[in-house]
Write a structure and sequence with these properties.
alpha+beta, 11-stranded mixed beta sheet, 14% strand, elongated, 11 strands, 429 residues, 14 helices
């Protein structure tokens, strides 16, 4: 009689009976591995395509959200660009005007009264070997008026200075109209007005007469603004001989302008006070006008830092707007998220999709803000006749900051989207 006793599974396998599972599944079962299929991996191109889908379906919302980012980036780049353009203009002007100009003026005496340079100071300064040009102006005490009917007290803060014929090239000034004082005009009642003086007197063309010191002077020229000697802008300049003859000028210079060799400026500056007034060098003030321009630019840099901070605040507000937009997008697209989860999308893929969408939204705003900021800088620089300078680091920092803000703003909505259960998301609850 045949034994039909049931043989256990392992014994059947030993006897050569085939396993009821396919070979691969059998091996997986032996190793303790799951037989579930692995989710497909998303390529970078797929991630970008998924992230851009939500942007393409809601163009108006994308525009308004990206606008906040664009305004912040544009403000930051415009501030940096305008500041850089202004610095480039200062450098260009200093290159054209030179940084080797020194200014000598009387200070205060020990008694508290204003000191006075000796008449020989110009000749003594000219003897310093590295000095190339010397010119001086002197206060006459007279005032200039549009005509003789103007009240005496209404001077408009304009002064009348006796000037050397070599003053204009020494300070790097330029004529806007007419001619400068020379040997043919310095002895006669002729006057050259600074830019501000011409504007206040409403006199712009040579040939018109102005009232100075109780007599008429003929206008022969008008100057452009003088950056290195702004005190000349609000002055009426007459020749030294004419000032002695018609305005009782005493001959003492009030300001001496000195041009020295570029490599010897510091050495000349050290000896100027003692040379101009050997008896009382402590009552002489020596300055370098180009340092004033540099200090003015440093003051502008402080204001630039403040405006840059305001631009950063605007950029931060734009980032908050992006985060808010992404949260609303997650709430509106619950069904889409549930369907993708039901079809096999993992939580990580959902998070990656929404972070990429936030990055693309911020990047659009950053690129638009970079272009807008560059256009603002170019327009302002052209209106002021400045060179246009937009630092590369500013553009890179603007775009980089938008990517950081986009990533931070997209983290919470992405985590919230990945946490939705497929059944609840499809149910719309």
């Amino acid at each position: 009689m045949t034994d039909r006793t049931h043989t256990p599974g392992p014994a059947r396998e030993e006897a050569g009976t085939p396993s009821p599972f396919p070979p691969r599944q059998a091996r997986n079962r032996k190793r303790g591995q799951s037989s579930r299929p692995r989710p497909a991996r998303l390529r970078p191109a797929d991630v970008v395509r998924l992230g851009s889908t939500g942007l393409r379906t809601r163009p108006l919302r994308v525009f308004l959200s990206a606008l906040g980012i664009a305004i912040g980036v544009a403000a930051m780049i415009a501030v940096v660009g305008i500041s850089g353009s202004g610095q480039a203009e200062v450098d260009r002007r200093l290159d054209a005007l030179g940084t080797n100009l020194l200014r000598v003026a009387p200070g205060e005496s020990l008694s508290g009264e204003k000191a006075q340079l000796p008449e020989e100071s110009v000749a003594m300064v000219r003897r310093i070997p590295p000095v190339r040009q010397v010119a001086a102006t002197g206060e006459t005490g007279a005032h200039v008026y549009r005509n003789e009917r103007i009240a005496i007290g209404r001077t408009g803060s304009l002064s009348v200075l006796a000037a050397d014929t070599g003053l204009l090239p020494a300070v790097g000034g330029r004529l806007r109209e007419g001619r400068w004082l020379d040997s043919a005009t310095e002895e006669y009642p002729a006057v050259v007005l600074g830019a501000t003086a011409a504007q206040r007197l409403d006199v712009y063309r040579p040939g018109i007469r102005v009232w100075i010191g109780g007599r008429w002077f003929s206008l022969i020229g008008v100057l452009d603004p003088v950056p290195l000697a702004p005190e000349l802008d609000s002055a009426a300049l007459v020749g030294r001989p004419a000032a002695r003859t018609y305005l009782r000028f005493d001959g003492h210079p009030s300001t001496v302008y000195v041009r020295a060799e570029d490599s010897r400026v510091a050495a000349v500056r050290d000896v100027l006070a003692a040379t101009a007034y050997p008896e009382k060098p402590g009552e002489v003030r020596v300055s370098r006008p180009s340092d004033a321009l540099a200090a003015r630019e440093a003051t502008a840099s402080a204001l630039t830092g403040l405006l840059l901070g305001l631009g950063g605040v605007a950029l931060l507000v734009g980032g908050v707007g992006v985060g808010n937009t992404m949260v609303i997008s997650v709430l509106e697209r619950r069904t889409e998220i549930g369907l993708r989860r039901a079809l096999g999308a993992t939580r990580g893929q959902i998070r990656t999709q929404f972070v990429m969408e936030s990055l693309l939204l911020s990047l659009i705003g950053g690129l638009a803000g970079t272009v807008l900021g560059t256009l603002i800088t170019s327009g302002y620089a052209l209106s002021r006749d400045w060179p246009t300078v937009v630092p590369v680091w500013a553009s890179a920092a603007g775009i980089g900051s938008t990517l950081v803000i986009g990533a931070v703003a997209g983290v919470y909505p992405a985590v919230r989207a990945s946490g939705l259960a497929p059944t609840r998301a499809l149910a719309g609850t």
